[in-house]
């Protein structure tokens, strides 16, 4: 097959478009800190949050938007987001400390991913929401609350390995969460530690952007929540959607 090579023109909007149209200024930037040059636009991320918000409003839905800290380590983004109503998803002790120092209050932070003792302690001590991946993590958090006299830890129960009730949907195994096949153990653990653990919702994590997989995961979370009596006592039961979003 002959002809000119395929050229894909990126979709650019101000202020990035105007920046790329200023080669002299760009060269000065590269000459100063060096190359490669990572240009961060804090106002753009605030606009992205508002786009998520407008989508929720358009469909008459309530919800919170969390930025995954691991997507970008720039301090400019957390500082800008702290001035909005967005939350921060942190996956390490350093990320938690960074979010708090940028101006986020603990009630706007969710601690996710594998957690070492220091990360787990700081999340419980500050009052951040904790996304729990396995039964033992509930036990650890409960022990921290009892040993140090902390307030109840609010948790999300993160689930993977969902199965469709109709046509089978192939999906990539998630790296996080307690298997939906072991759901009977989670409510037992929560019941046993109801004086130290406060479940506030369920969650899932996807490594793909497939709409079919999102639908199956959401259905699985709703089915799981519907089988737990404490969910039925609440007016609403949040579902935290980790991963699976386009840039």
Offer a concise description of the structure:
The protein has 247 residues and is of the alpha/beta class. The chain is 40% helix and 15% strand.
What features would you describe in this structure?
This protein is an alpha/beta fold. It contains 10 helices and 7 strands. The protein has one domain: TIM Barrel (Alpha-Beta Barrel), CATH 3.20.20.10. The chain has helices spanning 16-20, 23-31, 42-58, 76-82, 93-101, 117-126, 135-148, 185-192, 211-226, 229-232, and strands at residues 66-68, 87-90, 109-111, 129-132, 153-159, 197-206, 239-243. Helix 3 packs across helix 4 (76-82). The two termini are 32 Å apart.
What is the total number of structural domains? 1
Strand order of the largest sheet: 1-2-3-4-5-6-7
**How many DSSP E strands?**
7
Spatial separation of the terminal alpha carbons? 32 Å
Helix and strand sequence:
HHHEHEHEHEHEHEHHE
User: CATH topology, anyone?
Assistant: TIM Barrel
CATH secondary-structure class: Alpha Beta
Taking the sheet with the most strands, its summary is: 7 strands, parallel
Helix content: 40-55%
Instruction: Give the count of helical stretches.
Output: 10
Q: Helix/strand-derived class?
A: alpha/beta
CATH-defined architecture? Alpha-Beta Barrel
Q: Which value, in Å, is the CA radius of gyration?
A: 21 Å
């Amino acid at each position: 097959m002959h002809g000119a090579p395929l050229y894909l023109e990126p979709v650019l909007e101000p202020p990035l478009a105007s920046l790329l149209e200023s080669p002299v200024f760009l060269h000065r930037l590269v000459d100063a800190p060096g190359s490669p040059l990572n240009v961060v636009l804090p106002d753009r991320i605030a606009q992205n949050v508002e786009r998520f918000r407008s989508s929720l409003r358009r469909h008459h839905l309530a919800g919170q938007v969390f930025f995954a800290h691991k997507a970008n380590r720039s301090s400019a983004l957390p500082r800008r987001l702290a001035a909005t109503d967005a939350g921060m998803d942190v996956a390490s002790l350093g990320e938690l400390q960074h979010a708090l120092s940028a101006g986020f209050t603990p009630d706007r932070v969710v601690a996710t991913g594998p957690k070492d003792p220091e990360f787990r302690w700081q999340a419980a001590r500050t009052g951040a929401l904790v996304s729990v991946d396995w039964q033992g993590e509930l036990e650890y958090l409960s022990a921290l609350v009892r040993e140090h006299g902390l307030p109840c830890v609010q948790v999300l129960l993160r689930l993977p390995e969902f199965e469709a009730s109709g046509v089978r949907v192939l999906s990539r195994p998630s790296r996080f969460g307690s298997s939906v096949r072991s759901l009977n153990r989670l409510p037992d653990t929560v019941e046993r530690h109801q004086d130290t653990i406060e479940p506030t919702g369920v969650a899932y994590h996807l490594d793909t952007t497939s709409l079919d997989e999102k639908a199956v995961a959401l259905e699985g979370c709703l089915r799981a929540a519907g089988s737990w009596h404490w969910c039925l006592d609440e007016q609403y039961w949040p579902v935290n959607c980790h991963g699976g979003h386009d840039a």
